[in-house]
């Protein structure tokens, strides 16, 4: 007998990002960032990414490609069409391509980031 693994079930079970898009009844997609704690491997990889810092502020942003980041310091909220999510020091955040949102940096942010 052959056992197969469904990667979408694995992703759901481990809360990994697979685009974080859900289909609504009217056919439009609802998107928001995925927020979780990083694995040790992800922490090590992120340590080699560039660093971005920003003071307390509010600004609109649109993602034309996926961004993955590890929050080193600070606190922020991102308001999307349907929801507002918050993240802070130690969080691993994945922003899906096509997301339109408004950032509210509540405490100066310092993060490692990677596009693509």
Overview of this protein structure:
The chain has 116 residues and is mostly beta strands. It has a single domain (7-115), classed as Sandwich (Jelly Rolls). Helices cover 12% and strands 49% of the residues. It is built from two helices and nine strands, in the order H-E-E-E-H-E-E-E-E-E-E. It has helices at residues 7-13, 40-46; strands at residues 21-23, 29-31, 34-36, 51-54, 57-62, 67-79, 84-88, 92-95, 100-115. Strands 3, 4, 5, 6, 7, 8 and 9 form a seven-stranded antiparallel beta sheet that branches. The chain has a two-stranded antiparallel sheet with strand order 1-2. Strand 6 (67-79) and strand 7 (84-88) form a beta hairpin.
Keywords:
single chain; 116 residues; Jelly Rolls; 7-stranded antiparallel sheet; 9 strands; disordered N terminus
Beta content comes to: over 45%
CATH superfamily annotation: Jelly Rolls
Distance between the termini: 38 Å
CATH-level-2 architecture: Sandwich
Indicate the CATH topology: Jelly Rolls
Domains (count): 1
CATH class: Mainly Beta
Poorly predicted ranges: 1-28
Rounded average pLDDT: 84
| Helix fraction by DSSP (H/I, runs of at least 4) | 10-25%
Beta-strand segment tally: 9
Order of helices and strands: HEEEHEEEEEE
Radius of gyration: 15 Å
Number of helices: 2
Structural class, please?
Answer: mainly beta
Main β sheet profile: 7 strands, antiparallel
Shape: globular
């Amino acid at each position: 007998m052959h056992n197969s693994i469904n990667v979408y079930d694995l992703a759901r079970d481990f809360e990994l990002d697979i685009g974080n898009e859900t289909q609504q009844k009217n056919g439009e997609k609802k998107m928001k960032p995925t927020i979780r704690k990083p694995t040790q491997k992800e922490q090590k990889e992120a340590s080699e990414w560039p660093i971005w810092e920003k003071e307390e502020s509010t600004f609109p942003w649109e993602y034309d490609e996926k961004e993955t980041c590890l929050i080193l310091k600070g606190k922020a909220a991102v308001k999307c069409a349907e929801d507002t999510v918050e993240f802070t020091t130690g969080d691993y955040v994945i922003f899906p391509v096509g997301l339109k949102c408004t950032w509210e940096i509540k405490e100066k942010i310092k993060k490692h980031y990677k596009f693509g």
